[in-house]
Each structure stands twice: as C-alpha cells, then as structure tokens.
C-alpha cells in the first residue's frame, strides 16, 4: 500500500471516528484511532501514516510522535475537508 492511499484512508477514519471541535474541525483522540479494530486492520504502521499526513499538512497533533498509552488523549485534528 502506498503512503498517499494510506493517508486517504486515515482521513476517512478520522471522519468516521471523530467529531467536530470548537474550531469547526474534525478531531479524534489518538487512543480512539489506535484502539479501533477497523484502523488496526487497515494500517500496518498507524504512527507512520499519521506522521506522513502531518508532514503534508492534512492533519495536526501536538508533538512529533504519538505513542499508545502515553498519548491516548492527544487530539488528531483534520485540517482539510
């Protein structure tokens, strides 16, 4: 699977699992994404896909790297519709 395709799938999953925040952007907690069965089946390396999407300015999140447990409550915010 190529990165572009995985980023597109990630955007779909953020829309499916997320909700609109106060700024009108869709956001989801990292823990929700990481622990979702469908996401687990779709992404071999969720963290790598998140980093690629952040580099492309499609999403944003605080920090450089998200780790299960430690960063479960970090918001992953969709910047593009």
Description:
It holds the Pfam family Costars. Residues 1-79 form the Costars domain. InterPro entries: Costars, Costars_dom, Costars_sf. The protein is of the alpha+beta class. The chain has four helices and four strands; from the N terminus they run H-E-E-H-H-H-E-E. It has helices at residues 3-17, 30-35, 37-42, 46-55, and strands at 19-20, 26-29, 59-60, 75-78. A four-stranded antiparallel sheet has the order 1-2-4-3. Strand 1 (19-20) and strand 2 (26-29) form a beta hairpin.
Quick structural overview:
By secondary structure, this protein is of the alpha+beta class. It has helices at residues 3-17, 30-35, 37-42, 46-55, and strands spanning 19-20, 26-29, 59-60, 75-78.
What is the rounded Rg?
A: 11 Å
Oligomer: single chain
Q: Span from first to last CA?
A: 23 Å
What's the main sheet like?
4 strands, antiparallel
Mean model confidence by pLDDT:
93
Strand percentage, roughly?
A: 5-15%
Order of helices and strands: HEEHHHEE
Structural class: alpha+beta
Number of E-type strands:
4
The portion of residues assigned to helices is: 40-55%
Number of helices: 4
Name the poorly predicted regions.
none
Indicate the overall shape.
globular
Q: Numbering strands along the chain, what is their spatial order in the largest sheet?
A: 1-2-4-3
């Amino acid at each position: 699977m190529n990165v572009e395709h995985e980023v597109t799938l990630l955007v779909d999953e953020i829309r499916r699992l997320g909700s609109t925040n106060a700024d009108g952007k869709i956001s989801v907690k990292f823990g929700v994404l990481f622990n979702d069965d469908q996401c687990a089946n779709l992404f071999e390396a969720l963290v790598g896909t998140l980093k690629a999407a952040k580099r492309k300015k499609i999403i944003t999140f605080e920090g450089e790297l998200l780790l299960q447990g430690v960063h479960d409550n970090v918001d992953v915010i969709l910047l593009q519709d």
